[in-house]
Each structure stands twice: as structure tokens, then as C-alpha cells.
Design a protein that fits this description.
mainly alpha; EamA_dom; membrane; EmrE-like
């Protein structure tokens, strides 16, 4: 259970750092770039994946390239969503991306749809509407907020679908993550060098330090989640529900109590529905 708690804490800390970045004058694109440098090195040193599995003809390189583009892309979208909509609603949208992943599992991967999962899917869709509703804060258009939250919702679901494609091809998840992180870093570094030499955004030590810290915490989220499954191999539904509900609840507490984010009745109702929906989906996996 300790690993699960640490994973939840790291996930919320990522959102906290993204919330603090603009206040510290951090260039998010640079930070995300160095984040993938840290994640790549830590994946290599800690997870020690075998890269021999990538030498076969069945390696899903298209899906891995898709992950390398989608991962930093969703990071940038999440950063904007946290800025525009706050931690509370952004974390809920991120965790409710499992609804689209679940729908894809039914339609694309032949997963069995039972009553619990369908009920969770229905409540989750209502939760998305409630969480995305305008909370009455000044600044920012409703359409803009909706757009960034929708981007988080769809983006994280896309990553989950790509990971499923990779898993179905027989590629170990640790090797897939290392390759995706590495390619993502190379692509992002090329972009940052172009920005640097064109004078758009100069590379700075502060962005490097912030990005490396972001990468350590981001990797910690992944590592502790994997360790939680290893420590409780017969309770995957418990880990799944605990992780998602934990992030939703802790993110709400941090957003409201630490950053003073305001929520409307619809937002709070959506938050409650999100917790129930995740619980129902977890029950359906038993």
C-alpha cells in the first residue's frame, strides 16, 4: 500500500509543479524536454529493460513513435489545462480518460462489457460534464477551459490505447517506455535547439533544473505504480481503483486547500461521480 500512496503523491506533485511553473517563469516546453532526459536515464538505470525484444520483426515501431509524440504533447496540454482550469478539474479529466480507454477496449480489443463497467462508463460521462462546467472564476473563456480539459481527457486515453497496442505486440512495457522516452527527448531537444538558435526561447539552467525535477517525480509515479502491482499481484482492481480515486481526491484537496481553487456545485458533483464511476469500473474488473 505504501507504493500506491507514493504513486498517487507523485502524480499529484506533477500537477503541482505544472501549476507553479508559470509563477517561477519556467518555460514548460523546455521543462518537458529535460523531464524526458531524466525519465530515460532513470528507466535505463532502475528498470533495466532488455532491448533485445525490440530487434524482432514484430516490434510495433509505429505505436512507439506515436507514444514518443503523444507523451510530450499531452504534458504540454496538461500544463495548459492546469493553468486554465486548475489542478482539481485537470486531474479528474486525466483519470476519467479511462472511460475512452474502456470504450476502446470494447470496440478495438474485444474486451467483455459487463453491467458494472457500463454503469461506470455512463456515470463517468456525466462526471466529465460536471467537472468541465464553468466554476465561476474570472478570466479565461468557458470554451477554452473545455478545450484544454477535453485535450487532457482524449490525450491520456490515446496514450493508454497505444500502450495496449504495444503490449499486444508482445513488447515488454519497460522497454517500450524507455524507447518512447528516449525518442520523445530527442524530438523535444531538436525543437528546443531550434527555439534557442532562433531566439524564441533561450535554454536556461533554471528550466533544466525544473525539468529534471519534473522528470524524477514523473518517473517516480510510474515506478511506484509498477511496484504496487508487484507487491499486490492478486489485487489489480484494488491498485487501479486506489490509484485513480486517490489522485482525484488528493488533487482536489491540494487544489482547493493549497491553491485556493474555486469549485461550483456541478464541479463537486462531477468529482463525486468520478469517484463512483472509477469504483464501478474497478468492480467490473474483478
Amino acid at each position: 500500500m505504501l507504493f500506491l500512496i507514493l504513486s498517487v503523491a507523485c502524480s499529484v506533485l506533477v500537477s503541482v509543479l505544472l501549476k507553479l511553473a508559470p509563477r517561477r517563469g519556467i518555460d514548460i516546453a523546455q521543462a518537458v524536454t529535460w523531464n524526458y532526459l531524466a525519465a530515460s536515464v532513470l528507466s535505463l538505470l532502475v528498470l533495466r529493460p532488455s532491448l533485445q525484444t525490440l530487434q524482432g520483426g514484430h516490434t510495433p515501431w509505429l505505436a512507439l513513435l506515436g507514444l514518443a509524440v503523444a507523451l510530450p504533447g499531452i504534458f504540454l496540454v496538461l500544463a495548459r489545462a492546469v493553468r486554465e482550469a486548475g489542478i482539481v478539474r485537470s486531474d479528474v479529466a486525466q483519470r476519467l480518460s479511462l472511460l475512452l480507454s474502456l470504450a476502446a477496449a470494447f470496440l478495438l480489443f474485444g474486451e467483455h462489457a459487463n453491467g458494472w463497467k457500463l454503469a461506470g462508463l455512463g456515470l463517468g460521462l456525466l462526471a466529465i460534464v460536471g467537472v468541465s462546467a464553468r466554476n465561476g472564476e474570472a478570466g479565461g473563456s468557458t470554451r477554452g477551459t473545455w478545450g484544454w480539459l477535453l485535450g487532457v481527457w482524449v490525450g491520456f486515453a490515446l496514450i493508454d490505447i497505444l500502450l495496449k497496442r504495444v503490449a499486444l505486440a508482445g513488447t515488454p512495457s519497460t522497454a517500450a517506455l524507455l524507447v518512447s522516452f528516449g525518442i520523445a527527448f530527442v524530438l523535444m531537444l531538436a525543437w528546443q535547439l531550434q527555439r534557442h538558435f532562433s531566439g524564441t526561447s533561450k535554454l536556461t539552467a533554471s528550466n533544466l533544473g525544473f525539468g529534471l525535477l519534473l522528470g524524477v517525480i514523473n518517473f517516480g509515479n510510474i515506478l511506484f505504480y509498477v511496484r504496487a502491482h508487484q507487491a499486490m499481484p492478486h489485487s489489480p482492481a484494488t491498485i487501479f481503483a486506489g490509484m485513480n480515486i486517490g489522485v482525484v481526491c488528493l488533487g482536489a484537496l491540494v487544489g482547493v486547500l493549497v491553491f485556493g481553487e474555486k469549485t461550483s456545485r456541478l464541479n463537486r458533483a462531477g468529482l463525486l461521480l468520478a469517484v463512483v464511476a472509477i469504483g464501478l469500473i474497478a468492480r467490473g474488473t474483478l
